[in-house]
Model the fold of this input.
Amino acid sequence: MKPFRSRQEMLDAHELMFGEAGRQCAEIILRWAETLFAVPLDGLNIRVVLAPVELGPWPAEAISLRR
Done:
């Protein structure tokens, strides 16, 4: 997979795929990829994948297991 050509292209692509959440993730990657890891990463080579998360309501079985 080819890297993004620019920061704006990366931001736009992730926003099209995942909405505002995708754009925010891409902004975080572009800001921190070079310093967050032991080896500096080029943020334009990173792709964000967001998985849908269900936050509730919890089934009764799950609640009883947590006690």
Observations:
- Residues 59 and 65 are 10 Å apart (CA to CA).
- The chain has one domain: 1-51.
- The chain has three helices and no strands.
